[in-house]
Amino acid sequence: MIPIYRPWLGEEEAEATQRPIRSGWITQGPEVAAFEAEFADFVGAAQAVAVANCTVALQLALIVAGVSRGDEVITVSHSYIATANSIRYVGATPVFADIEPDTFNLDPDQLDGLVSPLTQAVLVVHQIGMPCDLGRIVPWARQRGLVVIEDAACAVGSEICWHGHWEKLGKPHGDIACFSFHPRKLLTTGDGGMLTLVNPDWADRARRLRQHAMSVPDTVRHSSAQVIQESYPEVGYNFRLTDIQAAVGRVQLERLPRLLQRRQLQVEWYRERLAGTPLSWQRQPPWARSNWQSLAVRLPQGQSQQDWMQRLLDGGVSSRRGIMCAHREAAYPPGSWRGASLLESERAQDEVILLPLFHDLSQDQMEKVAEAIISCCP
Ligand SMILES: Cc1ncc(COP(=O)(O)O)c(C=O)c1O
After folding, report:
1. What is the pTM of this model?
2. Whether residues 246 and 263 fall in one domain
3. Which of 58, 207, 265, 304 has the most C-beta neighbours closer than 10 Å?
4. C-beta of residue 285 within 8 angstroms of C-beta of residue 105
5. How confident is the model at residue 73 (pLDDT cuts 50, 70, 90)?
6. Does a structural domain hold residue 183?
7. Structural domain harbouring 181
């Protein structure tokens, strides 16, 4: 059976975990600080704040951006449910825009119809690594004084052409970007997340809030020759990343350029090999370079997603359905969200499947996937 995904972990990561264990400092310490600095350098960000996962990164991003109860945040339903949930956690209402059918990203044409006096922010998603149209969305938001938060959970290493230069997502091009280090992502720490920010005051507040809003971090108190007593001026959270996870993340960050290169070649091969089939591929606009976290294909119209997935499984190939839609879940009853027609979002969930794609997927395995797909084609 060819799995849908396998993370790339090796002896280097195993060895790296021994550093914090031997040092005795195993959470929110020097490894986390080094990981933040190296990650900021990689994406070109001024500020990076490591946290326990991307879901809490999104929650913190909304809090430091001033989004609160009664506000509205424009986003997409067609995303992992964590995106919409983060808006609900701060008491705000998600306002769902539909997606472009070929990139699976927020359709900027929808924004004018969804904005209201309650709108505080736009939470965009770079879906499965494909950059969304920030070139249109950011100026639209700036004109209206709205914050732009980027859910870059899947997009580490993806690039966008910005004012004529290729730049990594996460600089950020909006106000805050949030990354996930779940094992399904290109860079994994088991679980983990990172915010990158422009505003240093927002970054400082995120650093305090992730650790119960403690006024002086324990790293500072431990290295001080004076006794320092901390205080807790607001209600914070435990969103810490451990030093063991950060040590793994630092090795993963070094691996990332090789992984990105390999993904590009694998996707090119798949597209060439399956060029004669009626499948359609996620479109990469000329100003975008995806990290190809996942390989998404749309099935020919009228074909059953369930049947395709079963036939692939019978042929020894795992696949997954397209990205979910939050508004179709029981957790999102009428009244809990507002939005446009979400026809393209629903079609993408029902008509798209994800195919195996990971670093050590061999040429033979890719050929087996291609043959299984061809045998399913009408
Ligand atoms: C688009 C998107 N946002 C947020 C998340 C949540 O990330 P995490 O599992 O690190 O909390 C995911 C996870 O898959 C995701 O795909």
Report:
1. 0.98
2. no
3. 58
4. no
5. very high
6. yes
7. 11-255
